[in-house]
Write a structure and sequence with these properties.
This protein is of the alpha+beta class and about 250 residues long. The strands form 3 sheets. Strands 3, 4, 5, 7, 8 and 9 form a 6-stranded antiparallel sheet that branches. The protein has a 3-stranded antiparallel sheet with strand order 1-2-6.
């Protein structure tokens, strides 16, 4: 029966895919270099071992939504499931290198996406757990099938920059925001009523602004009630109140 070992040798983004995919370069090796492996149906569960790295102050602030206050991290830092993937390994003898393609998302409702986005640099500690079926040629020439033992696993430290490069390829200078349908409808109505051309300008128009300098405040007092909202549309105070009522 084949005795297989697994090692991740690197990672890179998959270019020109329909959605973000990260390819882990997986080395599959047999302890018997002459044994002919016909194929492997390989299942892999990938976990993020979040407690196996350190976090700076900025990262701690961005991960507050996931793990709470840093004082509680000794209790809240637990390994999280990232993905379950399947790959069919082609025929080989001795060793082979395959791409373990991991679908990724930039949806901030997904814990793994929040985690990756909260990191500035360094590495992400991963644990890969393997299972599946091995189709191989026995000594008499017959085709045999055996299961991969449940203790087969490996670790890999994924550079944060690889994730960042992948996201920049698929979503350059953008981020995803998922809203409830009724909230989106209200926001879309406000956007149309105000004649604001882009969603960035729509959100910017309702976000609180930092206090203006004294000189700017004096200029604002001299202006008429009619003001200009982002997007170049003229609006008076009644329009602003209507927007507030609409979004309440």
């Amino acid at each position: 029966m084949p005795d297989l070992n697994f090692t991740v040798e690197g990672a890179e983004p998959v270019l020109f895919a329909a959605s973000p995919i990260l390819a882990l370069k997986l080395r599959v090796s047999s302890t018997d270099p002459e044994e002919h492996i016909h194929t492997i149906t390989l299942r892999c569960q990938i976990q993020i071992e979040v407690a196996r790295r350190t976090y700076n102050t900025g990262e701690q602030e961005r991960l507050l939504d996931l793990f709470g206050q840093p004082e509680r991290w000794s209790q809240t830092l637990r390994s999280m499931l990232w993905n379950n993937v399947i790959v069919v390994v082609p025929p080989f003898k001795g060793t082979t290198l395959v791409d373990l393609q991991v679908p990724c998302t930039f949806d901030f409702n997904v814990a793994a996406a929040k985690y990756f986005a909260g990191l500035e640099n360094g590495e992400v500690p991963l644990c890969l757990l393997f299972s599946g079926s091995i189709f191989y040629e026995a000594s008499e020439g017959q085709l045999q099938v055996s299961q991969i033992p449940w203790d087969r696993e490996t670790t890999y430290r994924l550079p944060v920059r690889v994730w960042q490069e992948m996201i920049e390829i698929y979503y350059p200078n953008t981020a995803w925001l998922c809203l409830r349908r009724d909230v989106f409808d209200r926001l879309n109505l406000y956007k149309m009523q105000q004649g604001i051309p882009t969603w960035e300008q729509t959100l910017d128009s309702i976000l609180p602004r930092s206090p203006a300098p004294v000189e700017t405040e004096e200029l604002l007092l001299e202006q008429p009630a009619s003001t200009r909202v982002p997007g170049g549309t003229v609006s008076n105070h009644d329009d602003i109140e209507l927007a507030a009522d609409t979004l309440s």
